[in-house]
Every structure is written in C-alpha cells, then in structure tokens.
Amino acid sequence: MNVLLIGAGAREHALAWKLARSPILQKLYIAPGNPGTAECGINVDIPVSNFPAIAQLVRKESIHLVVVGPEEPLANGIRDFFRDQDDLDWVGVIGPDRSGARLESSKDFAKQFMIRNGIPTAHHQTFTTANEHEAGDFIQSLTPPYVLKADGLAAGKGVLIVEDPDQALMEIHQMFNGKFGVAGSKVVVEEFLQGIELSVFILTDGESYLLLPEAKDYKRIGEGDTGSNTGGMGAVSPVPFADATFIEKVKQRIIEPTINGLKSEQIDYQGFIFFGLMNVNGDPYVIEYNVRMGDPESEVVIPRLETDLLDLFKAVKERRLKDKAVEISQEAAATIMLVSQGYPGTYEKGFPINGIGHIEDGLVFHAGTIRKDGQLMTNGGRVLALTAMDHSWTLALAKAYEMARLVKFHGMYHRKDIGFDL
Ligand code: AMP
Ligand code: GLY
User: Fold this and answer.
1) Domain annotation covers residue 414
2) Are residues 54 and 9 in the same domain?
3) Ligand 2, atom 4, residue with closest C-alpha
4) Atom of ligand 2 nearest to the CA of 232
5) Which one of 9, 98, 105, 253 is most buried, by most CB atoms within 10 A?
6) Which pTM was predicted?
C-alpha cells in the first residue's frame, strides 16, 4: 500500500522509520518531511495544511492511507476534507475529524467532555469576557498555584502557572486581550494537581483500542524541570511507576470512558489519542488530551513497537482493530533532544552538524535539520532526537548520552538530567 505521512519533525521521522520497515508498504511519501524522513521515503514539499495540494498528490501517486503527525491539519479538518471529496472518500486517514480534534483544539471542550463522561481531571471553570468578573471568586476558592489555559491551540505555550491571585486575574485579562491570539478568547482556570506526569497512548478505530507503550517527557528547558516550557527535551519508556495496577486504573477510569464518550457523542474517531496524565498518589487524572502522538515521546514509543505499525493502521481503516494485538519490546528506550542555543526563545540556525556517522548503536531522528549541498545543517530549535535502547531505561539513557557526545554543532544544548525524577 502507498502511504502519505504528514509532518516534518522527529515524531514523523520515527513514524517514517517504522513504516518503512513494513512488509506491506509499497511507497512512502512524506509532506513536507525532513532530511531524516528522506532516508525512509520520498519527501514532497507540501505544507501540512495545504489540503488541495495534498489531495492532488494522493490522486497522482495512488495513495491509500494518509497518516497525520501534527495536530494542526487535524484541527483544520484534513479528515473532513478527504471525506468530502467524492473520489477520495475511500482513502484512509489516521487521525480524527475536526469534531474529534476538539479534544486538543479546545481545552474547554475537553473539560466538558471529561465531566460529561466522568473522567477524572482537575476541577475547573471556563471564562470569557462575559463572565470575567466571576474569575476572582473562583480563584479565591482554589489553593495556589493557579493553572490558566488558553482554550485554543497555542503551540504548547498557552498554559500559565501562577502563584499570586491578583497576577492570575491580570494574566486572564491579558489572555482576553490577545496574549495568545484568538486561542485565549476563552480561558480555562483550573486547580493545580500535585503529582508526577506521564504520557499514555492508544490507537483506536472508533470501536476498540490498542494500548501503546507509555512514556515520560521532560518539557522544561532547564535541569531539574526549571525554566521555559519547550516541545520536549527528552523522554523515556517504559515509565517505572506505571505498573500494572496504575495502568489498569488508566484503562478503566480514563481510556474506556473516553472511547465510550466519543461513541455516545457520535464522534467517529480513528487515530491516536495521547493522554497527558498526572499520577496523584497513585490515581491518574487527565491534564490534557492530544489527538496525535507525542514528540519526543514517539521517539521512544515507536522503537519499542515490535508489531507492524502499517498493519495496525490498515486495521484501523478497516475497523478491524479488535483482531489485532501490539507486541512491545521488553527493552527500554530513552531519547535526548539536541537543541539550538537560545531555544525555546530566539536562536540562530544554519550551523553544520557533524559526527552522526560516528554513532554505531542507536537511532538518530531528525527534527529541525536541512541538507544543503550534502551538508547537514541545523534548521530549528529542536534539532535531533537521539534514541537508544537497552535492558533498562537507565542503561538506555547512558547510551543516548554516549550518542550525544559524538554529535557536534555550534551552540548545541541538551539536558543532562533526563530521568532525574524516576
Ligand atoms: P498542557 O498544555 O495542558 O499539557 O499543560 C502544560 C503543562 O502544564 C503540563 O505538562 C503540566 O506540567 C502543567 N499543568 C497543566 N495543567 C496542570 C494542572 N491542572 N496541575 C498541574 N500542572 C498542570
Ligand atoms: N511532548 C508533548 C507533546 O507532544 O505535546
């Protein structure tokens, strides 16, 4: 089968790497891809939300399945677009339609969905300019710190955690005044959950689901989880505290009510669901839903899958996922993100990357790179994800740090304490 993968980051490189190993793959196209995905298939220079151009490619190359990496095209309705084209409505799309993508594209929708379906999450209230005057009372009812979330997509930057109630009110006001653009025209204010985070993933065909390996992501730029939020600085899988008892609670209290809720609300969901969870004294709470795989979580989750991922995607398209199982490697995986100096603020790009050829054991997933006249250069904040596997996550991590020693580019930075809290 011919497959088109949408996206350009290390998550997509990990997906492309895995799909390229499938015995049922004929041709793999990636739009727009990066120098890493170019080693797994054919990159096509089309932006992720140019649906007419994507549709043209699908027609021209007889593509059977479109796998959507990032959230933006899903929130913009790529699945709806294909459904509405008479000659393309048979093409499989891995990723929900616009109504399902609201789990990620509207935090207010996600909270209401969780309340309707009895899914444990932080206590919250949603504000707009119409009820802004009630925000003070709600904030007074909470124990600090206060969690303020812009309702819409804000590239992972729309969440503020504030200690002072007056500052919280001021920040809410600034969100209404466009601090995060239109994403902040509604603001979710919620209780702060004290615990340790992890990411849990499923693949669903709308009827049944398969649980994928869980992972732990490190979002802050600085060691000890300090400084600004980033897209993610490293990850490990499995997560030691996610034992069978905890995962059983996640299934019963969160995953199954989510699948049943989608069904009962007539949201036909085919794709990944990423549950951002907080483990509060052994009980899981949903911090957020994402309607895609995580990045850098994919760089540790995908390498642990022993099952043919394309065969699973085919089963999703045909709604036969209940006949399938996932085999997961007993080995652990760890990934270290190499980033440009200054990230997640301003940074320079265009520096040559050297040393990848010296890596003998491990996977190098490209995030922000570009190839110019044969030379690989930096081309983004997050540049490369270095993944290693071994018998335990500590051994895998040590190997990933070995890999990091071999790679060089001007201003290269990475966190040296991934896994410090496990
Ligand atoms: P989100 O974009 O919803 O994942 O939020 C970004 C980060 O803010 C999360 O990864 C958490 O570290 C933190 N966060 C969000 N909501 C809460 C909450 N209710 N309690 C504690 N931390 C939170
Ligand atoms: N690593 C977090 C995310 O992909 O949203």
Assistant:
1) no
2) yes
3) 294
4) 1
5) 9
6) 0.96
Which residue of 103, 124, 220, 287 sits with most ligand 1 atoms within 8 Å of its CB, as the best mutation to test the pocket? 287
Q: Tell which residue, 330, 296, 327, has the closest CA to residue 312.
A: 327
Confidence of residue 96 (pLDDT cuts 50, 70, 90): very high
Is there a single domain that holds both residue 7 and residue 74? yes
Q: What separation in Å is there between the alpha carbon of 296 and the centre of ligand 2?
A: 7
Can you give the pLDDT at residue 130? 84
Are residues 92 and 129 part of one domain?
A: no
Interval between CA 11 and ligand 2 midpoint (Å): 10
What pLDDT is stored for residue 210 in this prediction?
98
Q: What is the mean pLDDT of residues 280-309?
A: 98
Separation of CA 186 and ligand 1 centre (Å): 17
- How many angstroms separate the CA atoms of 172 and 358, rounded? 50
Whose alpha carbon is nearest atom 5 of ligand 2? Answer: 294
Between 182 and 122, name the one with better pLDDT: 122
Ligand 2 centroid distance, CA of 102 (Å):
16
Q: Is 87 in the same domain as 127? A: no
**Predicted confidence band of residue 179 (pLDDT cuts 50, 70, 90):** confident
Token digits of residue 222: 């600085």
pLDDT band at 274 (very low <50, low <70, confident <90, very high): very high
CA distance 106 to 286: 14
Total domains in the chain come to 2
Whole-number mean pLDDT of the chain? 95
Tell me how far the alpha carbon of residue 8 lies from the centroid of ligand 2, in angstroms: 15
Q: Which residues pair with 93 in a beta bridge?
A: 66
- Answer yes or no: is 41 within a domain: yes
Question: What is the pLDDT at residue 155?
Answer: 76
Count CB-CB contacts under 10 A for residue 381: 21
Residues 18 and 91 in one domain: yes
**Are 20 and 72 in the same domain?**
yes
Same domain, residue pair 21 and 77: yes
Residue 90 inside a domain? The answer is yes
* Rg, C-alpha atoms of the chain: 21
Domain range for 86 is 3-96
Q: Which two tokens stand for residue 1?
A: 């089968």
* Arithmetic mean of pLDDT, 145-150: 92
Q: Identify the pLDDT of residue 178.
A: 81
pLDDT of residue 184: 79
**Is the alpha carbon torsion for 139, 142, 143, 148 positive or negative?**
negative
| Residue whose CA lies nearest to ligand 1 atom number 16 | 287
Residue 111 lies in a domain: no
Considering all CA atoms of the chain, what is the largest pairwise distance in Å, rounded to the nearest integer? 61
Q: Which protein residues are within 6 Å of ligand 1, measured from CB? A: 122, 147, 149, 156, 159, 190, 192-193, 197, 219, 276, 287-288
